[in-house]
Design brief:
It is a single chain. The protein is mostly helical. Helix content is 48%, strand content 3%. The protein has one domain (1-528). It is built from 21 helices and 8 strands. The strands form 4 sheets. It has a two-stranded antiparallel ribbon with strand order 1-2. A two-stranded antiparallel sheet has the order 3-4. A two-stranded antiparallel ribbon has the order 5-6. Helix 1 packs parallel to helix 10, helix 3 packs across helix 11 and helix 4 runs antiparallel to helix 6. The longest helix is centred in the first third of the chain and has 33 residues, at 112-144.
Length: 662
């Protein structure tokens, strides 16, 4: 599914176009509601969430996957969690660094107690890392259990996430945006405007994601999430960089037969540090408010206004019908918003896990090749005791390793850099302990200690981020999208195997006639092979995932276009895509009832109703500018193939098989 960063990039382009065309856009006070609407059906990922029920009850499967991680971050009553410990560690080191930079001895004296507490914090983090090691085997099993339920009626028996993507989508999203526009409430009006962007981003973007994945979300749900994070990084980095490049009168170009961007990936913006959670922060929401609810096992405080909750639930319940989806109530929707916001904070804020890309870690100047406490072979001296460097298993960069195997290597790195940080902190505490009003510190020594410890903490941050990325729960840095072009030219190998050429370009070179792959079947419940292209047999009848060609994500965002060949040309407006917006000023196919009926009939006859709708920006603008009639029931997951209407299995006992309209 297109993630929050991609949806926000599309939303920014829509707002820019509307402003340039003199159209009204939401004011600053209403923009958070616009961006919340732009998240679109992805809000359903955490629907419903009742925090007090934990990973059980009617809660969304995705919350069940995140729950042990959130519990680790939140801690327990009376015991700080990993989030609090990391924030304490970083805040103390930041203040220490400021005091050293300013050579403020009295500030150091005031910090003695805080510094002396850091070894205890490090010990707590070490214990919490041991818990992470247990999650390494638990998460794949939980992920395997997230499989979407059968695509049959009634819709209330399916996961709400799948209902908002693939059941009566026109009814739900159409009613929502029309009632929002008629409400007279500027907050709801902004939300409805954003919902048009959310619908467009999903209907145009998810077929692209499917092409990279090798199957729709229904069949390879976790690979879909893993790939989406890479595409989010590409989209966010590309459009932020393009904005700056265009200000200088230039464009991003792709060299080496379209493989290598200029400016290159390391220069692109990153999702970490983008602070995307601020864009849809409503009702005073904070990380502490949500994490404390997880810690205490209580409902999250309500942050969304009652008017928005009522609007959303009324439209959803009318679309789903009877029986209603269990747990989808006001509290369940508030929880879904809170979890969407919190996980966006984890992914995009610099507060918890930093925002320094691996290629931008600065070691302190004039401090030698290594810290004083590190031996030439990489061992660490702690309290006079030599701890030899660990043997860390490194995954092959050219092979799509099992995610669990990669996680083992990352955990080794995390323990190693934490040990380095602990040794440096011990020396800092000892050095500050001997300072008094008559004794000045060795400022150069402290500066080097602080610089090396900071570098190790950044490495720890990046190891945490890498672990989330491997697990399919967080985006990579833009530099991690790059591949070795020399090796590609020589042998055709894509190194590393997670480079953008394999994780962000569609359709996949491996698709051929084998799309879509049938349902994911890991050999064991713990096998984490979502980083590999599917090897399951094709699900018949064969489909097309996306418009033919090798495209970067810009294609579905705003790359589909018309070329005006002049007033005498026939056709005057040839398109650069398969079945785009039918013609400038004409009826967009995404709103064409006859087109919908034709495609539905093809699907029911076992055919392939393939056909894209245009790029997400153009489709969003077409929806916004069209009369506020009901939308059409398009499958927002792009399931079973490109441009499909919503559908269900004709025989629930025989899947896959024939399909019928819902």
């Amino acid at each position: 599914m297109t993630g929050v960063p991609t949806q926000f990039a599309i939303a920014d382009l829509v707002l820019e176009t509307m402003r340039n065309d003199g159209e009204a856009v939401p004011g600053d006070a209403e923009l958070p509601f616009f961006y919340l609407g732009a998240i679109g059906p992805a809000l359903g990922d955490f629907l419903p969430t009742h925090v007090e029920d934990g990973a059980s009850g009617t809660n969304a499967p995705l919350f069940g996957v995140w729950f042990p991680i959130l519990g680790l971050l939140a801690g327990t009553p009376g015991t700080p969690g990993l989030a609090a410990n990391l924030l304490t560690l970083k805040d103390t080191l930041r203040r220490f660094g400021d005091a050293v930079r300013d050579e403020d001895k009295f500030a150091l004296l005031d910090m003695k107690t805080d510094l002396e507490a850091l070894p205890g914090v490090i010990t707590a983090v070490r214990s919490q890392l041991a818990t992470v090691n247990g999650l390494r085997t638990a998460l794949p099993s939980a992920i395997a259990g997230v499989r979407p339920r059968a695509k049959v009626l009634p819709a209330g028996d399916r996961h709400p996430r799948d209902a908002v993507h693939g059941h009566s989508t026109g009814t739900f999203w159409g009613k929502l945006r029309r009632r929002a526009a008629e409400s007279g409430d500027p907050r709801l009006e902004a939300f409805g405007l954003g919902a048009s962007v959310g619908y467009a981003g999903a209907v145009c973007g998810n077929p692209f994601v499917n092409g990279v994945v090798g199957a729709p979300h229904r069949n390879h749900w976790w690979r879909h999430r893993w790939v989406s994070n890479y595409i989010d990084s590409w989209v966010w980095g590309y459009y932020r960089m393009r904005e700056r490049v265009r200000e200088a009168g230039r464009e991003i170009v792709f060299t080496s037969s379209g493989r290598v961007p200029v400016p290159p990936y390391p220069a692109w913006d990153n999702i970490p540090g983008a602070e995307l959670q601020d864009r849809f922060a409503i009702g005073g929401i904070t990380p502490d408010a949500v994490l404390n609810a997880v810690r205490d096992g209580i409902p999250v405080p309500p942050h969304l206004p009652d008017e928005l909750v009522t609007l959303w639930l009324d439209c959803y319940n009318e679309a789903v019908g009877d029986p209603p989806s269990p747990g989808v109530d006001a509290e369940g929707l508030q929880g879904a918003y809170a979890m969407t916001w919190l996980t966006t904070w984890i992914a995009s804020s610099a507060e918890l896990l930093g925002a320094t890309a691996p290629d931008r870690i600065n070691e302190p100047d004039d401090c030698g090749e290594r810290p004083d406490w590190v031996t030439p072979d990489g061992g660490v001296v702690v309290g006079g005791t030599l701890v030899p460097p660990p043997t860390i298993s490194q995954p092959s960069p050219s092979v799509a390793e099992l995610a669990s195997a990669i996680a083992v290597a990352i955990l080794g790195v995390m323990n190693f850099v934490l040990g380095n940080a602990a040794a440096g902190i011990a020396l800092i505490v000892a050095a500050v302990a001997i300072i008094d009003e008559a004794t000045d510190p060795d400022w150069d020594e402290l500066r080097c200690h602080a610089g090396w410890v900071d570098a190790f903490i950044v490495q720890l941050d990046n190891a945490f981020r890498e672990l989330l990325t491997v697990a399919g729960l967080g985006p990579p840095y833009a530099v991690q999208l790059a591949h070795n072009e020399i090796q590609f030219t020589a042998s055709g190998d894509i190194v590393p195997s997670t480079a953008a050429l394999r994780t962000c370009r569609s359709p996949s070179a491996d698709e051929g006639e084998d799309y879509p792959a049938s349902v994911w079947s890991p050999q064991t419940a713990a096998e984490s092979n979502w980083t590999r292209y599917p090897t399951e047999p094709v699900e018949l009848p064969r489909q097309i995932s996306y418009a033919e060609g090798s495209w970067w994500p810009r294609h579905f965002v705003d790359g589909f276009s018309f070329v005006d060949n002049g007033p005498t040309a026939v056709p005057r407006f040839p398109a650069t895509q398969d079945n785009p917006l039918d013609a400038p000023g004409g009826m967009p196919s995404v709103l064409d009832h006859d087109e919908w009926e034709l495609r539905m009939q093809r699907a029911e006859l076992g055919g392939t109703p393939q056909g894209a709708f245009g790029n997400a920006v153009d489709v969003a603008l077409a929806l916004i500018r069209a009369p506020q009639d009901e939308l059409l029931d398009w499958d927002l997951d792009g399931d079973r193939g490109l441009g499909w209407p919503t559908w269900v299995w004709s025989d629930p006992a025989g899947q896959p098989g024939d399909v019928v309209r819902q």
